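Good morning C.,

I know you're traveling, so I'll keep this short. The sequence:
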Amino acid sequence: MTSKPARTNDAALAAFIAKKAEIDAMLARLQTFSEDHFGIDPERLNWGHVGSLDYQANLLKQISDFSFGEGEHAA
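The tokens, ready to paste straight into the viewer:
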């Protein structure tokens, strides 16, 4: 009986770690941007800024819903 060599997932693990680092960097940038009020001067805030922020919030909600099985991704 011949045994098959153990299959490793080293390539998948490396790709996962690289993608996680990419996401972590994006999250850090977004956190910093949020702390700076998304680059908006409160004295010059207008409804266009609100619309842009709403669009970004909707995109993040899609990611959050997918990640946690909520919203349209709920079982």
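Safe travels,
E.
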